[in-house]
Amino acid sequence: MPPEHPMLVATDVHRHFEGMHAVDGVSLEVPRGQITGLIGPNGAGKSTFMAVVAGTLPATSGRILLEAEDITRLPAYARARRGLVRTFQLPSEFARLTVLENLLVAAPHNRGDSLFGALMGRRYWAQDEERIVTEARSLLQRFGMSAKESDYAGTMSGGQKRLIEIMRALMLHPRILLLDEPMSGVHPRVIEQIQYYLQVLRTEGLTILMVEHELHLVEQLCDSVFVMAQGKLIGSGTMASLRRQREIVDAYLVG
Ligand code: ADP
Ligand code: MG
Fold first, then answer.
1. Which of the residues 39, 89, 152, 171 has the least number of beta carbons within 10 Å of its own beta carbon?
2. Is residue 164 part of a domain?
3. Taking Cα atoms as reference points, which of 70, 72, 75 lies closest to residue 56?
C-alpha cells in the first residue's frame, strides 16, 4: 500500500507586503476527503494564505506540498493541472456569455481557453467539444441550473453566480478545491443549496479548504477548522472544541 499523504501541507508559509506580515509563518495540513475551514477576523491573512496556496500570489518563504509533491515554485495553472483549484469571481466580460458558455470556457485544453473562442459562439463549440458540453450540462443539472443554460451569466443572482464559479472550478477536475467565502452575499435559500452541494462533493471524495465568516455554517460543514489572527495560526480543531477555548473566542471577537 502506498503511504497516505495529506492532500496539502503548508510549512512555515510567509507572505509579506512591504513591512506588512500578512501571512506570518503558517504551517498546516489539509486532510484528504474532508471539508477544512479557515476562520479569523478581517485582515487575519486568510485570503492572502489561500492565494499563496493557489499560486496566484507567490510566497515570500515557506513550502507547499500537494500530495507530497513540492509545488511551491509552480504557477497557479500548473497547480490547477495537478488538481489544486481555486474559484475566481466571474470576470465582467463573462456576463455576456451564457451560463453554459461560462462553463465551457473554463474547461482545460480546449479552444475556449481564449476569450476569442468563447465569442465565436455555439457553432464553434459544436464542432468538436461534445464531451465538454456533455460534462458542463451534467454539472448544470446537478446544480439545479439546467433551465438557465442559455441565459446570460450577467442576469444571474448573486447566489447563482457563486454556483457558476464553483461549477467552473469543477470543470478543471480538482482533487482539492479552495473556496474563499463562497456564501458571502448569497440568499439564505441558496446558501442551503451550496451547503448541500459541498457536502455531496465531499461524499464523492473531493477535498475542500474554505474560508467562511459565518461560524454556524463552519460548524455545520467543516470537519475541522484552522483559526488565523494577525497572520498567524492561533488554533485548530472542531468548531465545537474551538468555541470552548477562551483565547480563540477573544481573538475572533476582538479581531
Ligand atoms: P483576510 O482575508 O483574513 O481578511 P487578507 O489576507 O485579505 O485578510 O489581508 C491580510 C492583511 O494583508 C491585511 O492587513 C491586508 O490589508 C493586507 N494585504 C492584503 N493584500 C495586500 C496587498 N496586495 N498589498 C498590501 N497589503 C495587503
Ligand atoms: Mg478575505
1. 89
2. no
3. 75
